[in-house]
Q: What sequence folds into this?
């Protein structure tokens, strides 16, 4: 769990579409100390690869709308629902076999990560999602097998 999870959980419970507060509010609510880089507007950008806190707020469905580093204030806004991707789980080698598809809800950060992987590999988003899903499930099954003996 991220050290910023408490603050993001607070945003989720606030029931508002927008939240404005000071950097010290974030530190008090989240029981964290923001790094010195909080003084730079770029630290508050909505780039999922920027820093851990950014990934956490994006993953929870929030974006920064405005940042004033001089007065140490930031405004977060809720973003639309998470994106969803249809993934065909059928075996590519089994021609004619019935194919099952699932709708996989993805956070903004996960969507961006999948997009990058897809671009690097040259595969479609659906193909890359299927590969990553199969990889994650295989790793989980192996870990459970090892834990349970």
A:
């Amino acid at each position: 769990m991220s050290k910023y999870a408490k603050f993001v959980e607070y945003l989720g419970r606030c029931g508002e579409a927008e939240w404005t507060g000071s950097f010290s509010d974030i530190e008090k609510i989240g029981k964290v100390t923001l790094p010195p880089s909080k003084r730079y507007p770029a630290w508050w950008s909505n780039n999922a690869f920027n820093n851990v806190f950014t990934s956490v707020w994006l993953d929870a469905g929030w974006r920064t709308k405005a940042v004033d580093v001089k007065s140490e204030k930031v405004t977060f806004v809720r973003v639309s629902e998470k994106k969803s991707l249809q993934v065909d789980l059928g075996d590519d080698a089994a021609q004619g076999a019935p194919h099952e598809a699932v709708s996989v809800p993805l956070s903004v950060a996960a969507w961006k990560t999948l997009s990058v992987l897809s671009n690097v590999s040259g595969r479609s988003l659906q193909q890359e999602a299927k590969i990553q899903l199969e990889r994650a499930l295989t790793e989980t099954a192996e870990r459970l097998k090892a834990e349970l003996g």
Summary: The first strand starts at residue 18 and ends at 22. The mean pLDDT is 83. The chain has two domains: 5-78, 83-148. The radius of gyration is 19 Å.
